[in-house]
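We treat protein structure as text, and this decision shapes the records that our systems exchange. Such a record has a labelled line for the sequence and another for the backbone structure tokens. The record that follows is passed on verbatim for readers who wish to inspect the format:
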Amino acid sequence: LGKQFWMSTKHGIELKKLCHEKLGYSEDEQRNPRLRQKIEPLKKVGLETIVALQVMQDLLKKHQFKWLALAAPQVGCPQRFFVSGFLETPIGYRVYINPKITKLHSEPPEDVYDEESCVSIPGIKVSVPRWQRVYLEYETLERQKRTVILDGMQARVVQHEVDHLDGKLITDYE
């Protein structure tokens, strides 16, 4: 997967071109079956996982401050993980394998509607209800189990990416 696929300056075009030409995505991402399937837990980190991680990290690095995270199905990899540039660690992007939101803040999500966009559906913004605080269980790349409490924008990003892993898009909230 060469760098020629993400040399364009238009927002979102790199991912769309990569998915369309290399991974067989349809032009209408909202009806794309790969974005609509619920992804099963990842059992083994293999070559497909590593390649997808590299593509995702390259895309996030190129689009710093525009793209906050990517879920594996967005780059054609049907595995249950996402990479976050927004939740970056001192050693690089954080990888969340088999993420599961285990607890939600006690107040209803109607209190925290906000507009979201998605690189899989360029040019569309939707007001989406999200919990202000979430408890997230996940595994690291080394398969160590972790639990974190996330608030505000971090909680919103995680919920958006878990939606992708469950086959849900922001347009489902319209």
Summary: Strands lie at 69-71, 81-89, 92-104, 113-117, 125-129, 133-139, 145-151.
